[in-house]
Design goal:
By secondary structure, this protein is mainly alpha-helical. Helix content is about 50%, strand content about 10%. The strands form three sheets. Strands 1-2-3 form a three-stranded antiparallel sheet, with helices on one face. Helix 2 runs antiparallel to helix 3. The mean pLDDT is about 90.
Length: about 375
């Protein structure tokens, strides 16, 4: 950014910093600005600041800008040029939903030159969304403006310096506790639902900690009953028009996880029931050999599964639960049982251990308290 230094009422020194050279020295360009005679000090300062902006554009080689462009126009270019070439289809679909539902209603007609960190901060502050949701929405907005900077529509990303809402330290995080998970497992093993595909899917999510998209993307070739392991090779994706098998979320998401004897037996029985259905129909049922399918043998819809799950837990004391909470429940049970955080992180497919540590900070703190008590108990035993 340029620095405007006042010398007297109508003369100013403009200093533009261009970073550092190969020798480590700061690169700066300077010029002077003189306001017309008779200009008031306030007006002179305003003119100097406008001159400084133009000067910075010129020295950076950005003479032509498109900062009069509306945000809605920027979004069209972002999705037409950047998103379809650089983002995964499901990510682009998610971003489009965020833009349509939250960003366009607020910023659609706003010109790019009128964006600044304060305006964006105020927008997030008044949103009736959870802090974590605001963070995801901010990621979308930041990506769009980064594209605008690279295309030289604007000089600087207005997301720099934005302040996002933070969760209060005493906010209760809605999570499934061990008793609720036990109750859910008991409900799923009731004879009326135990053999249903729905029951098998939900129990698989609880017993493995897989993401729902990973679970619904499983093919029978991914299940190794001999070695009791499951290979996570795909993620089920939907972009509003079609469903397909894509690569997992991250490189670490492509992993092999152990399968308990309970889960192995559950999946073997499910395979037998599926083969009976396949043999009873005349059309090509389940051509991709998916572990979980729709009634007609195509991909199992994730949103449909969530609706089934919500109906199933309605009127329980954990009716707030989501499919993703089953993943958290698995990790929490493992950590509370004393499992090494590195192994838990690998099992979840997190990109690094710090991600696991951040998400499960409260659980780890409780484990540390138990560890401290163990030391005291050991020393007190004679």
């Amino acid at each position: 950014m340029s620095q405007v230094i006042k010398k007297d009422n109508n003369r100013f020194r403009i200093v533009c910093s261009l970073g550092y050279g190969a020798d480590g020295r700061q690169i700066r360009k300077t010029t002077t600005f003189k306001a017309p005679e008779g200009t008031t000090p306030k007006k002179a300062e305003k003119l100097a600041n406008e001159f400084a902006v133009d000067f910075e554009r010129k020295v950076r080689g950005n003479v032509e800008f498109a900062d009069n462009m509306k945000f809605s126009e920027l979004c069209k270019q972002y999705f037409n040029l950047y998103a379809k070439n650089e983002l995964k289809g499901v990510t682009a679909y998610t971003y489009q939903g965020q833009v349509k539902n939250h960003l366009l209603p607020e910023f659609g007609n706003l010109r790019l030159k009128n964006f600044n960190a304060n305006r964006i901060s105020v927008f997030f502050e008044k949103l009736k969304l959870q802090p974590q949701t605001c963070k995801k929405l901010f990621t979308v907005l930041e990506s769009i403006f980064s594209f605008a900077v690279r295309q030289r529509f604007i000089l600087e990303n207005p997301c720099i310096g934005v302040i996002l809402p933070k969760a209060k330290s005493n906010d209760d995080k809605k999570m499934l506790n061990s008793e609720q998970v036990k109750t859910l497992m008991k409900m799923l093993t009731d004879e009326d639902v135990a053999s249903s595909q729905f029951s098998v899917i939900i129990r698989t999510l609880i017993l493995t900690g897989m993401r729902s998209g990973e679970c619904l993307a499983l093919q029978w070739s991914d299940i190794d009953f001999e070695n009791s392991v499951i290979s996570i090779r795909h993620n089920l994706c939907y972009d509003g028009k079609k469903t397909w098998l894509d690569t997992p979320k991250t490189k670490k998401s492509r992993r092999v996880i152990a399968m308990s004897a309970e889960l192995a037996e559950l999946l073997k029985n499910h395979y037998t029931r599926q083969q009976i259905i396949k043999d009873s129909v005349k059309y090509d049922f389940n051509p991709l050999d998916m572990v979980f399918t729709s009634q007609t043998g195509s991909f199992k819809d994730r949103s449909g599964l969530l609706r089934e799950f919500k109906r199933f837990i309605k009127d329980t004391d954990f009716s707030f639960a989501t499919l993703h909470m089953l993943r958290h429940a698995n990790a929490t049970l493992l950590l509370n049982s004393g499992c090494d955080i590195k192994l838990v992180s690998e099992n979840l497919g997190h990109s690094n251990i710090s991600t696991t540590a951040d998400i499960y900070a409260d659980v780890l703190l409780e484990s540390k308290r138990k560890m401290a008590d163990l030391v005291s108990l050991t020393l007190s035993n004679k």
